[in-house]
Design a protein that fits this description.
heterotrimer; A mainly alpha; B alpha/beta; C mainly alpha; A: mainly alpha; 2 domains; two-stranded antiparallel sheet; two-stranded antiparallel ribbon; 19 helices; B: Rossmann fold; four-stranded antiparallel sheet
């Protein structure tokens, strides 16, 4: 066992001795820290004049949101929001900032406004603008929301068993929602997909030479002719690859979380995830959703790692491995597949999509396997583990049976 | 036809790889002999214009080494060279011919001729990545001769060749030496013994000796001894003098060694060879004087 | 002289065997190839995949414009600009080919030496890529809804960034690893471009054209400087002691 971990140690050493690996990891670390901050750089401009910085705007909005934190999103709050926004003359985007009535009356409610507006005007229903809500509509926020959820589930091409499962999940959501300031989690969800993609690229760069590098330098002859060359060292390499990927991602996720919370505050962990995605049917709190999302990203990364190791064991040079993995990661991001189709279900299982918040937490779908209905946030990690288990032996065999010359 | 090397120097910070080398080379075969790190490859690279000297100049018939005309008259075989793996032997020669300014027709003729000379005609259409080390070396020799060079610089040309191929190569170089300036560096002393008209001994960046084989061996005349001694004496002698040959013989040990004076009573002076000279120059025999 | 007389002379006289034929042949100065021939030959030695990748890109744009009518023009521009780094990669790998395959020393000692080869390859590939990008701009122009200049800026920024960074790496790192690192750079820039568009749409608006313009100018200057450095480096071997 000791010799196994000695071999693992040497493999780690080889990774960290490569300049390319070090440079890539440094860039990824910088991006992980900087990305949550980027959106706060710059000013809000009105008529060419800076009014406030984005950071100042965030601080102000946070103060307003914290005042509202702990309140139920109920008829009373809806009425308050309606009254506040009714005082604001019609305007959009940054123009609102220039209106004194907005700053005085409506801005303190802007955090809640987003949730209400999303539900009331769902799917282009412009008749239900906040300022034109009737008494009935103000009282039936949750019924309207539930109705839209049911409408959408009804359009899905899935079995009735799956539809029941989705409805049951939605019914487990605790209502009324308790509003809480949760921007840190908003940023976390927004940033993690990009961070996950960068991390996958770093994994490809660092692990591509795991086997292909040996072929290139001619060390394969020495390794394969040694005592452990056709068993232990290969296992050590695979173990190093997977563990490196897992550790890298755990660090990246932790770093992103800490930076987001450090900037925006640790508030909102126990708030319902519906404050971020009003039509999300999972009965999760923000931190539960963040944890589930992180797990999906981690396993998607392990899938990328496995594919990298497989290609590395087959190709003669790391160059081709990096190109193919990069294309695998970012080409799917450029295309849209028709939703509500089998193709979409498969498309969601691509690594870059497994790292996206919409696929994991927002979209309504299920996977049915042998009559069992599985939600995407459970199916995706399982799929990744299964695929990893199938692919790794091929990588093992490819290197073991590699012919010199 | 004259290649003039005038105070050629190459310095890297505190290390002097070539130290004010001055030579004039005319038609013939020059063997460059030296230990690893003596500066042979550095000198050859400067003569080929692939390395800029720190000082000094190189001219061939008045044409400076940086001139295109100089490279037009040059054929070079480096010590370690790569290839484009997807090229066949013929395609590789066509490519090198295009770089040497040959027309397509001439390239075709010359490539066919040279492939025949280096015995690679039947491999002309095969990809270089399938070649053995010796075949790659022969292909390298062929490309060096494409432009019918007047200066031929060969760095370790017989590395990887089997004895038969080495002999063929020696014969080829001997023929070429009649009309060209050929400078070849090697560790294989027998190559130089067989074909070099002039031997240049290089040590620590300087040419320390130059002359025909007979002339330079005179330096170690009466300095090579052979003796047969017991184990203890053998061990003692091996610790004091550079040993050229050691052989076990019926409980005793036969030694051939280099020494300024007779090393032991039973030692007899013998005729020196070039290999003896190499050892004499490149071990610290003066420490044992 | 008629044929019959020739035949009779042949029959009567023995033709003497040639003497010193080899010396005579070797003394002949054969005509050399011209500079333009050298350039034409170098075009033939550029690998097919360079031409194929660029042609595929143009074809894809054509097909997308013709058949994928539900893809917005901005999305198409964004996709093309994310793929252009790979076109740049093929150019850089061609330039670095001699070093990758350890042929630099041999090529340096030839009449048309290494600097000439690199310059010619750089020239050929730059012209070709400009033609390809020009064609793509013309194809997208009718759909884009904004001018040539703006379209050119959006397409060229990722392309020039890849070129500049790759040339920077080639000038500072040695042999084998360089193409692997340049591949990584291209993939990273393509990826960042994809993610950047998703997050920061406002960069593709009129108001923020000045920033990409400035970036493009800086990148072009940087690429030219690195190219000049690369050509200068090819005058001699950089790592003699290896």
């Amino acid at each position: 066992m000791r010799s196994f971990f000695d071999l693992v140690g040497f493999e780690y050493k080889k990774i960290f001795k490569r300049k390319g690996s070090i440079i890539t990891l440094v860039i990824i670390a910088v991006l992980t820290v900087v990305c949550p901050v980027l959106i706060l750089i710059g000013n809000v401009y009105i008529d060419g004049e800076p009014v406030e910085t984005y950071y100042q705007a965030m601080i102000k909005d946070r103060e307003y949101a914290r005042v509202l934190s702990g309140r139920y999103i109920d008829e009373t709050l809806v009425r308050e929001v309606k009254e506040a926004y009714s005082k604001v003359p019609s305007a959009e985007g940054n123009e609102l900032y220039s209106i004194p009535e907005y700053q005085e009356h409506a801005r303190p409610y802007s955090g809640v406004y987003y949730i209400l507006n999303t539900v009331y005007t769902a799917y282009g229903n412009r008749a239900r603008q906040i300022i034109t809500l009737t008494e009935d509509e103000m009282q039936s926020f949750y019924q309207i929301r539930h109705g839209e959820v049911l409408n959408w589930i009804d359009t899905l091409h899935i079995s009735s068993k799956s539809k029941d499962k989705l409805i049951q999940l939605d019914s487990e959501i605790e209502i009324p929602f308790v509003y809480s300031y949760s921007d840190a989690y908003w940023r976390f969800f927004a940033i993690m997909s990009s961070t996950g993609i960068f991390g996958a690229f770093a994994v490809a760069v660092c692990l591509a030479p795991m086997f292909a590098g040996e072929y290139g330098t001619g060390a394969d002859q020495l390794i394969l002719s040694s005592k452990f060359g056709k068993n232990k060292i290969i296992t050590a390499k695979l173990f190093t690859g997977v563990s490196f990927c897992a550790v890298l991602y755990l660090i990246m996720i932790a770093l992103t979380y800490l930076v987001c919370c450090g900037i925006y505050g640790f508030d909102g962990g126990n708030a319902p995830v519906q404050l971020w995605a009003p039509f999300c049917i999972y009965p999760f709190t923000m931190w539960q959703a963040a944890a589930v999302y992180s797990i999906c990203i981690l396993f998607a990364a392990i899938l990328v790692c496995t594919l990298t190791l497989l290609l590395s064991s087959i190709f003669k040079s790391p160059f081709g491995v990096i190109i193919i993995i990069s294309l695998l990661i970012f080409v799917p991001m450029m295309f849209r597949v028709p939703s509500n189709t089998v193709l979409m279900n498969l498309y969601r299982l691509l690594p870059s999509n497994m790292m996206s918040d919409w696929a994991v937490l927002i979209e309504y779908t299920t996977y049915e396997v042998f009559g069992i209905t599985i939600m995407p946030c459970v199916f995706m990690p399982l799929f990744a583990v299964l695929t990893t288990g199938i692919i790794l032996p091929f990588a093992y065999r490819a290197f073991k049976n590699h012919q010199i010359g | 036809m004259e290649l003039v090397i005038d105070r050629l120097t190459k310095q890297y910070q505190s290390k002097i790889a070539a130290d004010r080398i001055s030579l004039t080379l005319t038609k013939g075969v020059y063997g460059l002999l030296g230990a690893n790190g003596a500066g042979k490859t550095t000198l050859m690279r400067m003569l080929c214009g692939v390395l800029k000297p720190t000082g000094g100049e190189v001219k061939f018939n008045g044409i400076d080494v940086s001139d295109e005309g100089y490279r037009d008259a040059l054929g070079y075989l480096p010590q370690d060279f790569g290839y484009y793996p997807e090229f066949t032997a013929r395609e590789f020669l066509y490519y090198m011919a295009s770089l040497k300014g040959l027309t397509k027709q001439r390239a075709k003729e010359k490539s066919a001729e040279l492939l025949e000379i280096v015995s690679l005609s039947n491999m002309a259409k095969k990809k270089i990545k399938t070649f053995s080390g010796g075949m790659k070396q022969r292909l390298g020799i062929a490309q060096a001769l494409l432009n019918n060079p007047q200066i031929l610089i060969l760095d370790e040309p017989t590395a990887g060749l089997d004895p038969k191929e080495r002999i063929r190569f020696r014969n080829l170089i001997s023929q070429l030496g009649g009309e060209k300036i050929v400078l070849l560096s090697t560790h294989i002393v027998s190559d130089i013994e067989s074909i070099a008209n002039v031997v240049l001994i290089m040590k620590e960046g300087q040419i320390i000796h130059r002359g025909s084989i007979g002339e330079i061996i005179k330096v170690i005349d009466n300095k090579i001894y052979e003796c047969t001694v017991d184990n203890v004496t053998a061990k003692e002698l091996m610790g004091m003098y550079p040993v050229i040959n050691v052989r076990q013989e019926n409980g005793t040990i036969f030694l051939r060694l280099a020494a300024d004076k007779i090393p032991c009573e039973s030692a007899v002076p013998v005729q020196a060879t070039l290999e003896d000279l190499y050892l004499y120059y490149f071990s610290e025999v003066e420490d044992y004087a | 002289m008629n044929k019959r007389m020739k035949a009779q002379l042949n029959a009567v006289f023995d033709i003497p065997a040639p003497t010193r034929k080899t010396e005579f042949l070797q003394s002949i100065n054969y005509p050399k190839s011209r500079g333009f021939d050298f350039i034409l030959v170098q075009i033939g030695y550029i690998r097919k995949r360079v031409w194929i990748i660029s042609c595929l890109l143009v074809m894809t744009v054509l097909i997308s414009l013709r058949f994928l009518t539900d893809v917005s023009s901005l999305n198409l521009i964004w996709i093309v600009s994310s793929v252009l780094p790979f076109v740049s990669l093929t150019m850089v790998t061609e330039i670095a080919r001699s070093a990758s395959y350890n042929m630099a020393e041999l090529e340096m000692s030839c009449k048309h030496n290494f600097a000439g080869i690199v310059l010619v390859r750089l020239g050929i590939l730059s012209c070709f890529n400009m033609v390809v990008i020009g064609m793509i701009i013309l194809l997208l122009l009718s759909e884009a809804g904004f001018g040539v200049f703006r379209l050119g800026v959006y397409l060229l920024v990722p392309f020039m960034l890849t070129c500049s960074l790759s040339l920077f790496v080639l000038n500072r790192l040695h042999a084998r690893e360089t193409t692997y690192i340049c591949g990584g750079i291209s993939c990273f820039i393509g990826m960042v471009n994809v993610l950047f568009f998703n997050q920061y749409h406002m960069v593709y608006s009129d108001k923020s054209l000045s920033v990409p313009c400035l970036v493009l100018i800086i990148l072009m200057i940087w690429a030219v400087r690195e190219s000049v450095k690369l050509i200068r480096k090819t005058e001699e071997l950089q790592w003699n002691l290896l």
